Amino acid sequence: MSQPRNGTPGDVEEIHWPSLVAAISSISAVGIAIGLGLPLLSIILEKRGISSTLIGLNTAMAGVAAMAAAPITTKLAHKYGVAPTMLWAVLISALSALGFYYAEDFWMWFPLRFAFHGATTTLFILSEFWINAASPPSKRGFVLGIYATVLSLGFAAGPLLFSILGSDGIFPFLIGAGAILLAAIPIFIARDESPALEEKPELHFMRYVFLVPTATAAVFIFGAVEAGGLSLFPIFAVRAHFTESQAALLLTMMGVGNVIFQIPLGLLSDRVGDKRPLLAGMALMGFIGSMMLPLLLDNWLLMAGLLLFWGGCVSGLYTVGLSHLGSRLTGSDLAAANAAFVFCYAMGTVAGPQAIGAAIDVAGNNGFAWAIAAFFGLYALLSGIRLMFIRKRT
């Protein structure tokens, strides 16, 4: 049977398509707006003469907002309902997206960033909880693979829109706000299908960070490598004597790997009962790929091929980690753990660029690859030790 209306998460036996379409399409619309907004806002601040340091500081508000929103999202959803909370988050994020156009003073962009990314964090947490709740255990990885693929396409569509629209006038802001408001339509249509949170989570929020450590550590590594890798790879590539266009194409290959590997990795995770060895294996592949980066600097094609598979391994940590979370918990516990999952991702996005940037300053250009390898290697080592400990105990 499919999940009953306002039913308890975790009792579905078939894919519940109305809920999935609502959750996936809504968050993908937000992904388009974020993909459009990030380069748009940076370019506008650059035109206004704001320093790169201050632009980076303003952009870092995204991670701060995500960490602040994660602990309270479950409480809001428990009090007001999943769908109503998501609809309010859509409204707040759309209004703040449009507010950037009217904010003349730079200081105003800090509360706007906080509001925008806090609201979109709420949407991510509740969408992923909704998807997990509406997915049968045997097909959860497949469904999450679809979600991650569509979301990746949404993020990719944002920069494409920016290349078409440019940064002049109000039109790009209207498009971004409009894309977010479109997310309200499927949520409203499926509002009676959203999972209920009748009981409160049993544990304090931070306990959920450590309740499923393999999943939360995986998404921390993903956030660190994704944020640090995407922001600093162009510097690594240009210093290695690639042209700017070649560096951009290499980043594109990472994005392609991100898209095409999501569903296969999701299907693979459905075939294994314990997702932890798969997560450890992907981290090990990420470690090997990172260490190979300095060895392939003389061959663009080999570098592109490596990044294609490497990008898939990196993104798989998120998809399979989320599937592992859904296989362990249900109901309010799952919603709270999902919030902890996104919280750890946000911490990674703050820590990654700092650690990788510092490694480049200390060790030279190859410090980029070594720092990323250290993130992957640490996770592979710790998860491997944990797996051996669990198997000995059982």
TrEMBL record:
Q: Which PROSITE patterns match?
A: MFS (PS50850)
| Transmembrane regions | 20-44, 50-70, 82-102, 114-131, 143-164, 170-189, 210-236, 248-267, 303-322, 334-356, 368-389
Q: Name one Pfam family in it.
A: MFS_1
- Topology in membrane: Multi-pass membrane protein
Predominant location category: membrane
Keywords recorded for this protein, A-Z: Cell membrane, Membrane, Transmembrane, Transmembrane helix, Transport
Plastid listed as a keyword: no
Question: What InterPro entries does the database record attribute to this sequence?
Answer: MFS, MFS_dom, MFS_trans_sf, MFS_YcaD-like
A GO molecular function held by the record: transmembrane transporter activity
Give the location in the cell. Cell membrane
Superkingdom of the source species: Bacteria
An example of a Gene Ontology cellular component annotation for this protein is: plasma membrane
- Does the record's keyword annotation contain RNA-binding? no
* Domain named Major facilitator superfamily (MFS) profile: residues: 19-394
Q: Which Gene3D superfamilies match?
A: MFS general substrate transporter like domains
Q: What is this protein called?
A: MFS family permease
Q: Which organism is it from?
A: Rhizobium leguminosarum
